[in-house]
Amino acid sequence: MTDHTVRLDHVVLWVTDPVAAARFYQESVGLEPVRVGEFAAGRVSFPSVRVNEETILDLAPYGLAPRMDMLPGSADSAGHPVNHVCLSLSPAGFDALRARLAAHGVPMTDVGHGSFGARGSATGTFYFRDPDGNVIEARHYT
């Protein structure tokens, strides 16, 4: 049987220092780093962090932006940040992320309620920035 479900594979975040960004996402957010050693050794163009078994965040250095020419005109939008990326967690994972971010001194918004997303209205949601200014939303549903 063929699975025709669309899934999110990756999002590219533009960062100044991909190794430092990977460390932030590992230590402060709890995501698994991918290909950091290969990037540091110059064998790959960027590292990533794993959100889950199907989705990663690519941590692309700004210097890569001029080479993002997969479509005519696509280099013009390279290097521009997205508005934000939202991570959906379990309620326990949500609380653990807030605690981990607080322990690392990462500023966060207060917890909001009822924000609409892919699964309806979230029970809790908050926002924080990574060291490069990328905005990350965290949420949970009941």
From TrEMBL:
One of its GO terms (molecular function) is dioxygenase activity. Gene3D superfamilies: 2,3-Dihydroxybiphenyl 1,2-Dioxygenase, domain 1. It holds the Pfam family Glyoxalase. Keywords: Dioxygenase, Oxidoreductase. The keyword Oxidoreductase applies. InterPro entries: Glyas_Bleomycin-R_OHBP_Dase (IPR029068), Glyas_Fos-R_dOase_dom (IPR004360), GlyoxalaseI/FosfomycinResist (IPR050383), VOC_core (IPR037523). It comes from the Bacteria. Signal peptide: none annotated. Transmembrane segments: none annotated. Residues 7-141 form the VOC domain. The keyword Oxidoreductase applies. PROSITE patterns: VOC. This is Dioxygenase.
